[in-house]
Design brief:
Length: about 250
Amino acid sequence: MTQQSRARLVLGNWKMHGSLAQNAVLLSALRSANTEADAGPHAQVGVCVPFPYLAQTAQALQGSVVSWGAQDVSAHEQGAYTGEVSAAMLKDFACRWVLAGHSERRAYHGETDQAVADKARAALQSGLTPVVCVGETLAEHESGQTLDVIRRQLAPVLALGAQAVARMVLAYEPVWAIGTGRSATPEQAQQVHAAIRAELAALGTAQVLVLYGGSVKAANAASLFAMPDIDGALVGGAALIAEEFLRIAAA
Ligand code: 13P
């Protein structure tokens, strides 16, 4: 499957940023931008916001071309899991996306590869699209373990089977490129994306979108998107600036 026949997707990950007042300004700028025209008919744009702002985001973006989602989800359906948020709750706020296994969740909250797969499965059961994030640390990168790490992280996710995987989005986010201003080069990213694509193809799910994340800016987006296996971006810092984010979507 060629890049031309796959859709494009640019997702913002606000992380733990924002306030009601700041969000109102950002969301209204996203809403009023003609994102569809900017990004082309095959590109989708969305934002993954902190849980408390889902209602505000849903209200602000309803009826626009910009979709929304959350940054984490419980693997459990419901029950005594203090502090957790279920996929059904996210669905109540008309979420389309949910991130699973962002490197910050893996690093600071001990999320294992299996836990990430469990979260992806829970999201699918509620009709959400999980955006499963994978990526190696700087030490792993420098010791040449990148592809081994990616395959290990993907294994329990791919084990959910072709039907499940076909309804996911994957994101490659090298940890050393996140928030550092040091993006992977298009060629470096493409090499990993091609390996991920090969894993997907082996499962018969080569059409799954694979996003790149890590210091994506308007200035480097076009060169990343020119790579055959990079289908879009998962954007952190630059997603908090409406104009910058929309320029990435337009790229
Ligand atoms: P930055 O774009 O700020 O590097 O963050 C990337 C990221 O972690 C998106 O999920």
